[in-house]
Write a structure and sequence with these properties.
about 325 residues; two-stranded antiparallel sheet; disordered N terminus
Amino acid sequence: MLASSLGRVPATRLCRLWHNLCLSPAVHRCPAGLSHTCAQQARSSSSAAGFPVDTMSFSHAVSSDWYPHGLRPMVGGDPMQATLRRMSSGVELQPMQSSAFVRPYSIMYQLDGRKRRWDAVESHPSVACVLLHKGLDSLIMVRQFRPAVYAAAMRAAEAAGEPTPPMSVGFTYELCAGIVDKRGLPLTKIMQEEINEECGFHVEEADLEKITSVITALGISGPRMTLFLAEVDDSQALPTRGGLGLAGEAIEVLALPLASIPAFLADEGLAKSASVMFAVMWLQQRLAARQARRVGQPARADADVGRDQAAQATG
């Protein structure tokens, strides 16, 4: 009945619908007749079927595609597949009653003698760290489900007349980060605690190098994020190994090879913020400059500047 009723649906769309029903897709043949590699096959014909080529639905359609560009799961944390099993299907949107983290308000001001109003949300400043693993020549990142990202994807799909996207669309790739909500603590201490809790590594405050600070969510909130650089190796790993599982969170710790940075940046199918893009491009430039000084050549921003970059970044 299912096959006959959907007989006129394009194969790529039928496959997408099938994966929306699969909480944890595995090796199988879906109704469209495509194998477990249907996500990759569908990319080539997705434009003709009316789908954007780079979407989170395709990027995470199958479990084998949840670790693109050489991403490796670190010990500790909750793998994306395990988190999906813990989540119920469907999301309900409700008006906000109260929150300990954000507060909506209106800003009244004047422009050209006329009163203006701007609606905004008060939120905390934050810290984030470009965390290099010297032994792996990799950038340590975290992946977690962001309900607001998924809600935006739901609204976009509804507006386009597309099926409800799978929950995997809500997973984002981020730097180790945290909000500044503890009065009296220096930013380096807050960053140290976040690296400890999220990623499972101990870093001395003195070893956190400030990169810069940026303003985030310009149109709605405007808090400041302070970015740091640090390096770790396996000798600094903690027994807890990060992930915040005991705190009720579900964070997966990932290692992104430095050589994969260009492909990671170019992949629009991986949800990442502008601050992550800036931080990773800053790292790329820094590594290239260090390597150029070492060999006496002009700086390069691409990834083939050598496997020894991680140790040079903080040198």
